[in-house]
Amino acid sequence: MSTAQVMSTEPQNGFVRGLRKLASAREASILLALAIVVLIATLRNSNFLFSPDGYRDLWLTPSLLLLVAVGQAVVLITRNVDLSVGSVLGLSAYLTGRLFIDMPGLPVIVVMLIAVVFGALLGFVNGALVAFARVPALVITLGTMYAYRGINVLWTGSDRINASDMPKEFLGLGTAQIFTIPVLTIISVVVLIAVAWWLRNTRAGRENYAIGSDPAAAELYGLPVTRRVLTAFVLSGALAGFAGVLYAARYGTINSQAGFGWELDAVGAAVIGGVAIFGGVGTVWGAAIGAFLLMTINRALPVVGVPDFWQRAVVGVLIIGAIVLDRVLSLRQHRKLIEEREVAQ
Amino acid sequence: MKRSQTHAPALELRGVAKAFGQVVALRDGQLTLQPGSIHALVGENGAGKSTVVKIIAGLYRRDAGEIRLNGELVDFTSTAEAKQAGIAVIYQEPTLFPDLSVTENIFMGRQPVGTFGRIDRSRMRSEVESLFSQLGVAMDPDRTADGLSIADQQMIEIAKAVSLDAQVLIMDEPTAALSGVEVERLFAVARSLRDEGRALVFISHRFDEVFDLCDTITVMRDGSYVSTTATADTNPEKIVAEMVGREITELFPKLEAEIGAPLLEVEGLTSPGIFNDISFTVRAGEIVGLAGLVGAGRSEVARAIFGVDGYRTGTVKVDGKRVAPGKPTAAMRAGLALVPEDRRKQGLVLEESVARNTAAAILDSISKLGLITTGAENRAARPWSEQLEVKANAMTTLVGTLSGGNQQKVVLAKWLATNPKVLIIDEPTRGIDVGTKSEVHRLLSTLAQQGMGVLMISSELPEVLGMADRVVVMREGRITATIDREQATQENVMHAATHGANEETEHAA
Lengths: 345, 509
Prior knowledge:
The complex is a heterodimer of chains A (345) and B (509). With 345 residues, chain A is an all-alpha fold. Helix content of chain A is 80%, strand content 1%. Chain A has a two-stranded antiparallel sheet with strand order 1-2. In chain A, strand 1 and strand 2 form a beta hairpin. The longest helix of chain A has 37 residues, at 308-344. Chain A is globular. Chain B has helices at 2-6, 49-56, 79-84, 102-107, 121-135, 150-163, 180-195, 207-213, 236-244, 298-306, 328-334, 343-347, 354-358, 363-366, 374-388, 404-416, 434-449, 461-467, 490-498, 503-508, and strands at residues 11-20, 23-33, 37-42, 64-69, 72-74, 87-90, 168-172, 199-203, 216-221, 224-230, 262-271, 275-283, 287-292, 313-318, 321-322, 336-339, 422-426, 453-457, 470-475, 478-484. A six-stranded mixed sheet of chain B has the order 6-7-8-3-9-10, sandwiched between helices. In chain B, strands 16-17-18-13-19-20 form a six-stranded mixed sheet, with helices on both faces. In chain B, strands 2-1-4-5 form a four-stranded antiparallel sheet, with helices on one face. In chain B, a hairpin with a 2-residue loop joins strand 4 (64-69) and strand 5. The termini of chain B are far apart. Chains A and B meet through helix 1, helix 10, helix 11 and helix 15 of A and helix 3 and helix 5 of B.
């Protein structure tokens, strides 16, 4: 009976239902928060949104973190974590610079590709250690975070790559715009759409959620857990590698500390965006909006007049607030479902 | 049915063996499943049923023997392969993904896909709807699996199996957590699947269900095959005899005990909405059975007495002295012990050793300068384990690897080590095989004889009637009757459990 009713009402209300679902989604509240932050900052100082620089930075600043956060979100959804992304970003950024210096003839696109593959390789090392050695990802990637950074310091030393070492066409990528929107942002959003589609619409994507929701059940279902976890880490590494290339293009200077601390920003962005730290829940859209919110708040706080000292604290409160909110909501939902069951009986 | 006799068996196991290191879990597993039949697999806990199931499911690999599916030799190296071959297993506690929708749970790993590997959601949806109407399930396919009752979760597992078009469906103790209505619904579905020509395996400790549902019974004992009989040609006594390898003459060995002074006095215990005005006394040497339907508030009363939960009004006295409410440590000091219903979650640390679990409640008394050594734990635990005949390789064996009966013995040992005056035991024999059951009963009886007071909560009427000196019956949080051993019958206990104390007068008025 109930199924028949659902069948008959659904088609007409499909659009409305979809809209309502969109509005009530976790991502919508973050988007709203982002809008409020932009609004307040703009009211305080109209340059925040309406000056050319302000407008550009609004798009540009979060773009690199967005890439890293998307990769991080996929890993988090499988109930793992990748703390090495900052170090991977640093290594691949330096590699990009070195390739331009040491092999001047190499086309830009080839250099970019090499750096991405390099990042993927570092991600593969993480994934292999986690998936085969069955050591918690937190421990493995904490280790590789230091190890990769150590290699970076060893390799770079006190050296620094400057804008003059890199070709103009490559650096142009960092400042180019299409219809007032920075190319870097467009690239990031394209990647975001691709990953979001994969995660939502393919078996592999859905299996990531299943694995994160209950690893033991995933084993019983006969899902290829090892392969999926490995893939998630490779993706995260590749995206961090890609972010490294774009980092080089945008900032033009690379030392051994590039990307330092980014792993925590990426985890923070994902968590603020509603990706559950224990896996199984969340979208890369949420993580992307979380990245925007995190970076925009960082820029907005000085405008609003919050002292330097408090800026990190505000970000911390935001992260804790997001986690508490998610926890409260999921507990309430869980209780509601149980209550409905009792009533039905 | 006639047709099935001429076909090759749907599944056939011969001489299948499996060992984990030193421990042989399965010596000689045999099973012949006919299509269109519901086949019971019975045996004590530890008889090897679960191992057989896990080998068929592809979770374990066998060490020896052969498995034939529709007459052809198979060798599954993963659950995915077994599933592919048309074998579905429904575990006692279904394993679903709580964060995903019901639909996704059913199709995970084999969703219908279109171009670019895109999952065809509308096809998935319509298939779920036809599955649910076939099985007579009314559930929103879009809701998450989180918060579903065990019965509904099992329905999802069954829907999964049907959508796989599984020809062999194995149900490992599916009814353990179900209510009467839910069991009926499950059986109806099982019978309709049988009539479609599938082969079902049903594992259960409840004989009434086995005899109600199954047409063939295979008995296992100590990891070996014992017999296969048509249900029509046997009876529960014969099956029990085959399971334990001996005739059980006395299932409930009740020893005469001298009834002494009151040890546990509960008066007017009330916790609004949970239980109301609970009063009873347990004397030395007495076993008091606390009977009632599931959800009558019996376990809650036990938890309140032991101080796990608080209560609004009333008193609990042990040996004449009041016990402070809401403090388990005070209850322990006063001489109370509580063996909880869910031993795996509340009674044991599964990842720890037998010794560590047994000594867990007496750490204060075996510690020296606040430090506890493994040696001290072993010394303290050994006498109890030996007395209760816990079957473990060593004191260092992990409790999680023991059978249900042996786990229960470890919990008992833990509390007996505290030397309690009153033992509260909640469902002492749930999920325990027949042989160990009577051991537990004998033990309780012996303890009472030695002067301990025992409060036994049990949903099994024969157990209550066989063991208790007095039966206190609860219904919806209130005591509806207190019946002495001589007067207690199945009928009057059941009546009190299902009718309010004043119901008749209310009707008259």
